[in-house]
Amino acid sequence: MSGFHHDKGGKVWIVGAGPGDPELLTLKAATLMDTADIIFHDALVNIRILERARPDTTLVNVGKRGGKPSTSQASIQASMIHAARQGMRVVRLKGGDPFIFGRGGEECLAMWMAGINYEVVPGITSGVAAAACVGVPLTYRTISRSVLFVTGHEARKGEAIDWVHLAKSADTLVIYMGLTRMAEIQGGLIAGGRHPDTPVLAVHWATLPQQRYVCTQLNCFSDVIHQANLGSPAIIIVGEVVRVFQRLSRQEMVCPGDLEQSKIGDLTERLCGVPI
Ligand code: SAH
């Protein structure tokens, strides 16, 4: 571990690592990684991004994946505070953007309460990246003038998301962590007034080489995504803008109804007979 800064005390940077592709890391994040003494990172941060760290920088996986017992939020924060108090330059590296379903707000509050100097560095959130890399414009004049980011995951037991209420609260819905709640989401959005044939796109491992996506429609998306065996992490996009992508893909890449001729082996949109 190099260069502690005992004179002024340490500092914590709460940094977004972007959706996965190392080239989507910001220059600021890359520079901070170069100068960090210790990096506490999430499990979702791509190994190729972590490989950028200097060999003498301590890397600590505080992720909540991989079958290992998860590190509690309180102990992550305590470790960040402890390292900063030792005078270290601490980078807390989080997938996507720290303030989009990343508990970055809680970490800021913990640093503030402990009197630790901290700064937040934005990252490209996976919902925005997933749409862009598949070619779905989240806003589009006349079709989508509002976008909602929502999590499918309830914060506490019994605090379920009110999908009926959310159904028409924005033109385009971008759903994080929704895979385990698909039946509920599908039913709620239709009950709330979304048309059953509203197009739905799910993108798995957006921006990474293992990226896959499924394009279907609201009244069957739960079954289709299960059949396609699409796992976590995935972003689900609901709204008419997905049709823009379908049109583009029809023109440029894929002949609907004829998956064999498609250049995109991953496109499984015909499972549900989507009208495009
Ligand atoms: N702060 C992160 C979100 C963390 S919550 C961000 O801004 O992106 C974790 C969820 O993000 C996953 O369950 C999944 O829904 C989504 N996610 C993160 N990276 C992803 C990726 N590369 N492709 C698809 N979904 C991703």
TrEMBL record:
<keyword id="KW-0949">S-adenosyl-L-methionine</keyword>
<dbReference type="GO" id="GO:0032259">
    <property type="term" value="P:methylation"/>
</dbReference>
<dbReference type="Pfam" id="PF00590">
    <property type="entry name" value="TP_methylase"/>
</dbReference>
<dbReference type="InterPro" id="IPR003043">
    <property type="entry name" value="Uropor_MeTrfase_CS"/>
</dbReference>
<dbReference type="InterPro" id="IPR014776">
    <property type="entry name" value="4pyrrole_Mease_sub2"/>
</dbReference>
<keyword id="KW-0489">Methyltransferase</keyword>
<keyword id="KW-0627">Porphyrin biosynthesis</keyword>
<dbReference type="InterPro" id="IPR014777">
    <property type="entry name" value="4pyrrole_Mease_sub1"/>
</dbReference>
<dbReference type="GO" id="GO:0019354">
    <property type="term" value="P:siroheme biosynthetic process"/>
</dbReference>
<comment type="pathway">
    <text>Porphyrin-containing compound metabolism; siroheme biosynthesis; precorrin-2 from uroporphyrinogen III: step 1/1.</text>
</comment>
<keyword id="KW-0169">Cobalamin biosynthesis</keyword>
<protein>
    <recommendedName>
        <fullName>uroporphyrinogen-III C-methyltransferase</fullName>
        <ecNumber>2.1.1.107</ecNumber>
    </recommendedName>
</protein>
<dbReference type="GO" id="GO:0004851">
    <property type="term" value="F:uroporphyrin-III C-methyltransferase activity"/>
</dbReference>
<keyword id="KW-0808">Transferase</keyword>
<dbReference type="InterPro" id="IPR035996">
    <property type="entry name" value="4pyrrol_Methylase_sf"/>
</dbReference>
<dbReference type="InterPro" id="IPR006366">
    <property type="entry name" value="CobA/CysG_C"/>
</dbReference>
<dbReference type="InterPro" id="IPR050161">
    <property type="entry name" value="Siro_Cobalamin_biosynth"/>
</dbReference>
<dbReference type="GO" id="GO:0009236">
    <property type="term" value="P:cobalamin biosynthetic process"/>
</dbReference>
<comment type="similarity">
    <text>Belongs to the precorrin methyltransferase family.</text>
</comment>
<comment type="pathway">
    <text>Cofactor biosynthesis; adenosylcobalamin biosynthesis; precorrin-2 from uroporphyrinogen III: step 1/1.</text>
</comment>
<feature type="domain" description="Tetrapyrrole methylase">
    <location>
        <begin position="11"/>
        <end position="216"/>
    </location>
</feature>
<dbReference type="InterPro" id="IPR000878">
    <property type="entry name" value="4pyrrol_Mease"/>
</dbReference>
